[in-house]
Write a structure and sequence with these properties.
Helix content of chain B: 25-40%
Number of domains of chain A: 2
Distance between the termini of chain A: 44 Å
Number of domains of chain B: 2
Strand content of chain B: 25-35%
Shape of chain B: elongated
Order of helices and strands of chain B: EHEHEHEHEHEEEEEHEEEEEH
Distance between the termini of chain B: 41 Å
CATH topology of the largest domain in chain B: Rossmann fold
Structural class of chain A: alpha+beta
CATH architecture of the largest domain in chain B: 3-Layer(aba) Sandwich
Largest sheet of chain A: 5 strands, mixed
Strand order of the largest sheet of chain A: 1-2-3-5-4
Radius of gyration of chain B: 23 Å
Strand order of the largest sheet of chain B: 2-1-3-4-5
Largest interface: A-B, 41 and 31 residues
Oligomer: heterodimer
Radius of gyration of chain A: 32 Å
CATH superfamily of the largest domain in chain B: Response regulator
Number of helices of chain B: 7
Shape of chain A: elongated
Order of helices and strands of chain A: HHHHHHHHHHEHEEHEE
């Protein structure tokens, strides 16, 4: 068959579409599920442009040149980077790295992994070779992609990779290494193939480089991840210890109170015998007050806390309650119904709630009778967390989100800025901040359904 | 006139609340009136049916011998009068009231153990209702109604400074004088819903023209009266200049 610009473009339309889908599959593992509408919207110009370009390149024999070939990969990386920005709303610096990784993987899949059984290049002017080529690209390549995506998912590479991207102090070295992958890979093949570019591919080299890459990445990032998990776990453990200590102190108080109240009862018995009714009344009211003060408050707090069935969150709340108690601030915690699941990774949930509680405690500290309220409400559609406190001055709602804003001097005020950052990274989390009659209210709503479900799929 | 309803199973408490309310209405000349005080929740509901006005309700939480408690009664009342003022009167002060207050959007709860405290609470509630209904945004004030997941919020349109698109899909962030809220909607919808007072100055911003302070022509920014900054696109510049 004679290959002209038009029929080459036509076949390219098919091949590039398949390649686009492969990129989506890989990105899904690395980042998250794409916004389908936006993905389709981006796909049309993407496929048309690259198909035409590919046809020109093929007909001029540009793929045979190693330098041009590598440049071509970087062109794909740039365009796909724009795609990631558009489809996933990813930051530029994260989009470019992810794009490089995606394109690198897709290229070694379509150019190398599909060619293990080949002894020579396809000759596309021969019909049988041509159809074999098309079939391998359309059927075999997606299969291999799904397979590789599954490996990445099983190995929790995606999770580690997302942590790598969101790291506060970015690892610039690693980012640059990822960006250089296509060059390194092409150079490796170039040298192994003895300076001749056969099918501009060498499956064995590719496989080795893929495995090596996988090994390095999962080792380095897994180490990071484990370190992080370890510190978090030990923090959570400490918090849970506090919870147990608190329970034990309630028990101790009850024992003490029981002891006191026996003594007092015998006193009252005498007064009742004498018929001194006012003394008895006074005694009873004093005793109930004492009980409330000594044990009642703690018991009710512990019952509320007991309704939270997420260990990390329970630990955090217990720790915060003790913290504010030591500062003589009262926290009125209400958890009316048991809560066993909140559809947000528990690490970020705890960070967000911790910030809100710290903020409320900070705001009321120094007041005459400092107290704030924290309630958890479960509903069918979502879970609501509300933290509210009195404020002495009207709050400037527009200002409080700025990094470094604080009414209490310098070196503070990072809280709400990072609160917003946490919230902004979830599609199912909503916040409402308002002030009403001198009460500052923070509402956090987390839409239900299983994690990674419902609207992450939109 | 705002109708007031009372439901309590103890006769003397009912009377005490009613007397206090009537005295207070007389002193301050509030535009309110105690319409009925009932022992049974069914009777109260019957009383409300067909009234249609936004009312004030003083409800006992623990209604002895009745078919429903105060919270269920509150839910029933909400069905007929979604924007009424619910105030709970109760003997306990350690139940999860904040939770119910949130769920029923109750105005307040008053502890009735101490009569002096209770009366102070009642007076305070009336004052708040009075301020809300006549105060800064009178009855003619326009509200922007928004669904915030499982709740509905009403925000005075004049207090909205601007809307901005959020990072997440279909997310809008409302910037108000006293609030900031994210919700799901589209800019096109908001534009049609809010009318002329709001202009779409940028792909990502819909602003309340009354809150513009000045334009920063060099950086193509709009500085709002509360200090926040919005961007504007080139095509809208003429319109903006003609407004200011």
């Amino acid at each position: 068959m004679e290959l002209t610009f038009w029929n080459t473009t036509g076949f390219n339309l098919l091949l590039i579409s398949v390649q686009f889908l492969e990129q989506l599959i890989l990105t899904r593992v690395l980042l998250k599920t794409p916004d389908k509408k936006k993905a389709c919207f981006f796909m049309v110009p993407y496929v048309m442009f690259l198909s035409a370009l590919g046809a020109v390149q093929y007909l001029h024999g540009m793929f045979a040149h190693v330098g041009l070939n590598t440049l071509n990969q970087y062109l794909y990386i740039l365009i796909w980077c724009a795609g990631l920005r558009f489809i996933y709303n990813e930051k530029w610096k994260n989009a470019i790295v992810t794009s490089a990784l995606d394109i690198f993987l897709v290229f070694i899949i379509i150019e190398n992994f599909t060619g293990f059984y080949l002894t020579r290049n396809y000759d596309l002017s021969v019909a049988s070779d041509f159809w074999k080529y098309i079939a391998s690209e359309v059927l075999q390549a997606p299969l291999i992609t799904v397979f590789i995506a599954a490996i990445l998912k099983r190995g929790k590479v995606g999770e580690a990779y997302r942590i790598f991207l969101s790291e506060e102090h970015e690892k610039r070295g690693w980012r640059i290494l990822i960006l250089l992958l296509p060059v390194i890979h092409s150079a490796m093949i170039y040298f192994v193939n003895e300076y001749k570019l056969l099918n501009n591919s060498n499956p064995v080299v590719s496989l080795l480089s893929f495995l090596l890459l996988y090994g390095i990445f999962s080792y380095v990032f897994r180490c990071e991840l484990q370190k992080k998990q370890l510190t978090e776990q030990s923090a959570s453990l400490r918090q849970q210890e506090l919870y147990i200590q608190n329970l034990e102190s309630v028990q101790r108080d009850v024992r003490l109170f029981r002891h006191d109240y026996k003594n007092m009862m015998s006193g009252m018995y005498l007064q009742a015998e004498e018929g001194n009714l006012t003394a008895v009344q006074n005694f009873i009211s004093q005793m109930t007050d004492d009980f409330d003060r000594q044990v009642g408050e703690k018991i009710s707090q512990m019952t509320q806390l007991g309704n939270i069935k997420i260990p990390e969150l329970k630990g955090l709340l217990a720790a915060k309650l003790i913290q504010v108690q030591n500062r003589n601030i009262q926290c009125n915690l209400e958890v009316w119904e048991p809560i066993s699941k909140i559809c947000m990774p528990v690490r970020d949930l705890c960070r967000a709630v911790g910030i809100l509680l710290d903020n409320a405690a900070e705001a009321v500290a120094g007041m005459k009778k400092p107290s704030f309220t924290c309630i958890f409400v479960t509903g069918e559609e979502c879970t609501t967390i509300i933290v509210k406190n009195l404020v002495s001055h009207p709050v400037k709602i527009a200002e409080i989100w700025k990094e470094g804003y604080s009414t209490k001097g310098q070196g503070r005020g990072l809280g709400l800025a990072s609160y917003r950052r946490i919230i902004a990274s979830y599609d199912n989390v909503f916040s409402y901040t308002h002030e009403e009659n001198g009460i500052f209210i923070q509402e956090l709503k987390i839409r239900g359904g299983a994690l990674n479900d419902t609207n992450l799929h939109m | 006139m705002i109708p007031i309803y009372i439901c309590d199973d103890e006769k003397n408490i009912r009377k005490a609340i009613r007397d206090e309310l009537e005295k207070e209405i007389l002193i301050h000349d509030y535009d309110m009136q105690v319409v009925c005080d009932k022992e049974k929740p069914e009777e109260l509901l019957h009383c409300i049916t067909g009234h249609g006005n936004r009312g004030i309700y003083f409800l006992d939480v623990d209604l002895k011998g009745a078919s429903m408690n105060g919270f269920l009664l509150g839910q029933e009342i909400r069905k007929q009068d979604p924007r009424g003022f619910l105030i709970y009167v109760t003997a306990y002060d350690n139940l999860a009231f904040e939770t119910f207050r949130y769920k029923l959007e109750a105005l307040d709860y008053i502890v009735k153990n101490n009569p002096a405290e209770m009366f102070r609470g009642i007076r305070n509630c009336l004052q708040i209702v009075h301020e809300r209904t006549t105060g800064e945004h009178g009855p003619a004030c326009e509200y922007f109604t928004v669904k915030f997941l499982d709740t509905v919020r009403h925000i005075p349109v004049d207090e909205i400074v601007f809307f901005e698109t959020g990072h997440q899909t279909h997310r809008i962030v409302l910037h108000g004088l006293k609030e900031r809220m994210d919700f799901v909607d589209s800019m096109q919808n908001l534009e049609t819903q809010l009318g002329e007072k709001f202009i779409r100055v940028h792909r990502a911003y819909l602003i309340n023209t009354e809150h513009i302070d000045h334009l920063d022509l060099k950086n193509r920014q709009i500085i709002m009266k509360n200090g926040e900054v919005c961007l504007y696109s080139r095509r809208i510049k003429e319109t903006l200049l003609s407004i200011l």
